[in-house]
Amino acid sequence: MCSQVLRVRGQAEDSSLQDRGQWASKAEFLLAVAGQIIGLGNVWRFPYLCYKNGGGVFFVPYMLFLVVCGVPLFLLETALGQFTSLGGVGAWMKICPLFAGLGFASQMMILHSCVYYIVILAWAFFYLCSSFQTRLPWSHCNNTWNTGVMHTSHTHITHDPSVSLTDAKAQDWHVLDLSASVDRLGSVNWRLALCLLLVWTVCYFCVWKGVKSTGKVVYVTATFPYLMLLVLLVHGVSLPGAVDGIVYYLKPNHTRLTDPQVWMDAGTQIFFSYGICLGSLTALGSYNKFNNYCYKDCFRLCLLNSSTSFIAGFAIFSVLGFMAQEQGVDIADVVQSGPGLVFIAYPRAVSMMPLPQLWAVCFFLMILMLGLDTQFVSLEALIMSVSDLYPTLIRRCHRREIMLLLVCLVCFLIGLLMVTPGGLYVFQIYDHFSCSGASLLLLSVCQSVAIGWIYSADRFSNNIKAMIGYQPLCIFRLCWRYLTPAMCIGTFGFSLMFWSPLTLANGVTAPVWATAMGWTLTLSSVSLLPLWAIYSLMNTPGTLQQVKKKPLYHVKIHEYRVI
Q1: Annotation-wise, does 305 bind a ligand?
Q2: pTM above 0.70, yes or no
Q3: Are the CB atoms for 241 and 321 separated by under 8 Å?
Q4: Which pLDDT score, from 0 to 100, does residue 128 have?
Q5: 273 known member of a binding site
Q6: Does the pLDDT at position 10 exceed 60?
Q7: Which of 132, 407, 423, 486 is the most buried (most CB within 10 A)?
Q8: 370 is in an annotated binding site
Q9: Is 288 within any annotated ligand binding site?
Q10: In b/e form, how buried is each residue of 52-90, taking b as 16+ CB within 10 angstroms?
Q11: Domain ranges, ordered by start, for the chain
């Protein structure tokens, strides 16, 4: 395997191998990365965290983590892919073979995310189809799952005083036929299964020709959500009660800065929203030309990502403020995070507006496009990383397309568990553990150590200089060596100290067996780091002392890259 990965680029390649591909233009790279990192977390997680953690003061820890961890690691991964012209495992094998487990771990996390992330798109497509009905199914009680909780009259909804708002929210999950217990998985919902199959089919054809097809699709999937976000923002701020919602979103509460949970939320949000340690940034960067200005691209994309999160908060909270005023309740009673915001709070708010079908269609189209490019770009990163490991085996005839089809089929079959009555619980366990904050923090520490200490931050800065003509600011070397690992270790320690059992939909606490399954998902990726290191040491010739003296890196620009 290593011999295949470390084969120098200057050597003659088998003419029967398919071309690896390259971005046709700078715009394709920027749009692909923007589509990967700007996703559902910008819409459903950041605004809620900002409101929950002190409004405007949340930007203090958020900006600190952005500067110390987000931007340095973002540059590290994109520059690593561009410099080595390899993605995932191959890039780390060239730079630092002992830490190639980072590549394996990130690919395992991508595989997990491909299983559960696309289920959100299946739900969104189901809601999108439901939005064309004369009466939105979540706006009235004449459904098979309702118990008369809500009474509707035009655009105003009042609650039965004998039923709590929490009960009303719980019943809204029954649009997805949610069961009452984690133990009751139930049979597959055939409508959701068809939606899942359709979305997987779309993803397959977005990726099946590699970077050539991906580069064309991102022109639509990366730009269309901004159009919908702008439409929803303009409409949202014009609604009565919108100002109250925006005030709740940004109202500063300085006392929250002393709460460790605020800092943990800021750190995990940076890692989630920037796609760090998932291998996608390295894969996308590997399609760049050698002299691409990845340094400036890093700042542009990071600014775009955080700005999108901030603006999305106005679009979301303006509508939630309207909803709270219409119902005569406090906004804290209608604010939710994650799937609850997208599939309960916002749809119910939309149902109170004039022309609710129009706004529902706009919203769920935006959700579909936001999630679609994140999904197929991650899938492309996974397939490309495997192709780089075994180019002579996969990059022939239609083997890549066949492998892609098998991956999609397996992920689809596993995903069927999440379109059952108990599927939402399985989804939340996958979401919380498979690509969890703990996994991302550990991988970030290892990445920083590998580049900052083993490979040398100075040497990596010189590699970037070879590509763009100058070294990045010295603060980047300081972060790679000291600040980034220190912040990640501190956040990881706090997360362990304040760990609590996962709370699932409807307030259900995850049972012990579900938590154990979740930690198994976490270990399935993180454990590959020490396992690969042990395997690498055992297969390196010489005694342990000799192995320690051998350099763990071996990269020369002229060996594999031509400017």
Answers
A1: yes
A2: yes
A3: yes
A4: 93
A5: yes
A6: no
A7: 423
A8: yes
A9: no
A10: bbbbebbbbbbebbbebbbbbbbbbbbbbbbbbbbbbbb
A11: 24-139+182-549
CA distance 78 to 60: 26
Q: Copy the structure tokens of residue 304.
A: 């775009």
pLDDT at residue 553, as a whole number: 46
Rounded Cα distance between 395 and 58, Å, is 47
Whether residue 388 is annotated as binding a ligand: the answer is no
CA distance linking residue 83 with residue 77, whole number of Å: 10
**Token pair for 247:** 């005030």
**By the 8 A CB rule, do 240 and 321 touch?**
no
**Angstrom distance (rounded) from CA 295 to CA 75:** 7
- State the Cα–Cα distance between residues 119 and 416, nearest whole angstrom: 9
Question: Does residue 337 contact residue 431 with C-beta atoms inside 8 Å?
Answer: no
Q: Which residue has the higher pLDDT, 145 or 30?
A: 30
Contacts 24+ apart (CB under 8 A), 163-168: 165/329, 165/333, 165/334, 166/507
CB 339 within 8 A of CB 368: no
- What three-state secondary structure class fits 100? coil
Query: Is it the case that residue 337 has pLDDT exceeding 60?
Result: yes
Superfamily designation of domain 24-139+182-549:
Amino acid/polyamine transporter I (1.20.1740.10)
Write down the number of H helices and E strands in the chain: 30, 2
Alpha carbon distance 463, 94 (integer Å)? 13
d(CA 379, CA 417): 20
Q: In whole angstroms, what is the distance from residue 272 CA to residue 275 CA?
A: 6
The lowest-confidence range among 130-134, 219-223, 516-520, 556-560 is 556-560
Q: How far is CA 158 from CA 333, 385, 467, 516, in A?
A: 14, 53, 62, 41
